[in-house]
Specification:
Oligomer: single chain
CATH class: Mainly Alpha
GO molecular function: trace-amine receptor activity
Number of helices: 11
Transmembrane segments: 47-70, 82-105, 117-139, 209-232, 263-282, 294-316
CATH architecture: Up-down Bundle
CATH topology: Rhopdopsin 7-helix transmembrane proteins
Structural class: mainly alpha
Strand content: under 5%
Order of helices and strands: EHEEHHHHHHEHHHH
Number of strands: 4
Strand order of the largest sheet: 1-4
Protein name: G-protein coupled receptors family 1 profile domain-containing protein
Membrane topology: Multi-pass membrane protein
Keywords: Cell membrane, G-protein coupled receptor, Membrane, Receptor, Transducer, Transmembrane, Transmembrane helix
Length: 343
């Protein structure tokens, strides 16, 4: 892929691109120094705008409902739900990246080199923060299922909040340092006016794959395999009607946690399915494998995951459905509504 790598949104732009025989200039008054605009029929252009706009609106709206629900209702203020809140903020942010994609739909970047770098860094920070949050969710479920007697003391609201802040701060610092050259020299690698290209050092790319993919995914898989093993052993114990008092009390503690682990397990599995292909393509690209169609598909999966998460909540969490009803019926505006037993 060479030293220069376009932003996530620019890769996904390839999905909407055609290869016309004739193309207009993004900046006609600049002549040959301007990038070329993608020319397509009016009907195709309208269809693409409708599809991308719909995805953006749905992603932003659904994740905003999650953010409002968990933030407003005190009964939902648990360490696990705070982690879901962090994931929703990340997905909400990704929803705005679709807006930039709509601006790029004709192959021209009109917002300047500075906004190009900001858009790229913002997208990577949101993605890394979501990876870190899923790691924290896995740790939360591991402690809840494998050490239920000490869960309340080990996993507290304050510790969850601190971990979330560190996750976002670490992601922001890491990607700002990765893109520090682009931040200081924005637009240097654009081959024409109207392009959005950033420089990615090979070492930086390897660090990103290791720190944002290999290590986090390894932790997630190991922890959830352990949770799955404990869940299986618990199920076998319940089927064999174990009546030992200590084990029975442990089973009572674990039952609700296991149910939560299964629900969050769906979120984790879908997340891994959507994110893993992207990093695998980045890895193969670094080894010299080039495929625009691969970027189209995997970046689309990463973006689409942000829409899938709140949809999963609709089916798996009764409290989220109740919250949505409260929001749309405006009951959330009534005094004392935050104390409602939404569970």
């Amino acid at each position: 892929s060479g030293p220069a790598s376009t932003s996530l949104s620019h890769h996904l732009l390839l999905l909407t691109m055609s290869t016309p025989d004739e193309a207009e200039l993004c900046y006609p008054h600049l002549g040959n120094s301007s990038c070329r605009r993608i020319v397509r029929s009016h009907s195709v252009s309208v269809l693409l705008h409708i599809i991308l706009s719909s995805i953006s609106v749905l992603t932003v709206t659904l994740n905003l409902l999650v953010i409002i629900s968990i933030s407003h209702f005190r009964k939902l203020h648990t360490p696990t739900n705070f982690l879901l809140l962090s994931l929703a903020v990340s997905d909400f942010s990704v929803g705005f990246v679709w807006v930039f994609l709509i601006l790029l739909i004709d192959g021209c970047w009109f917002l300047g080199a500075g906004w190009c770098v900001f858009n790229t860094v913002f997208c990577y920070v949101a993605t890394s923060a979501s990876v870190g949050t899923v790691v924290l969710i896995s740790v939360d479920r591991y402690v809840a299922v494998c050490d239920p007697m000490h869960y309340q003391t080990k996993v507290t609201k304050n510790r969850a909040k601190i971990c979330i802040v560190l996750c976002w701060a670490g992601s922001t610092l890491f990607h700002c340092l990765r893109k520090i050259y682009n931040i200081e020299n924005s637009g240097e690698f654009d081959s024409c006016t109207g392009e959005c290209v950033i420089y990615v050092h090979p070492v930086s790319r390897i660090m990103n794959i290791v720190l944002s993919f290999i290590i986090p995914i390894s932790i997630i898989v190991v922890l959830y395999v352990r949770v799955f093993m404990v869940a299986v052993s618990q199920a076998q114990a319940m089927r064999s009607h174990v009546t030992v008092v200590t084990l029975q009390s442990s089973l009572n503690v674990n039952r609700s946690e296991l149910k939560a682990a299964r629900a969050l397990g769906v979120v984790v599995v879908v997340f891994l399915m959507c994110l893993t292909p992207f990093y695998l393509v980045l890895l193969t690209t670094g080894l010299g494998v080039k495929s625009a169609s691969s970027y189209i598909f995997v970046v689309g999966l990463v973006f689409f995951n942000s829409l899938l998460n709140p949809v999963i909540y609709v089916f798996l969490y009764p409290w989220f459905r109740k919250c949505v009803k409260c929001v749309f019926s405006l009951q959330i505006l009534k005094s004392g509504s935050s104390e409602a037993n939404i569970l």
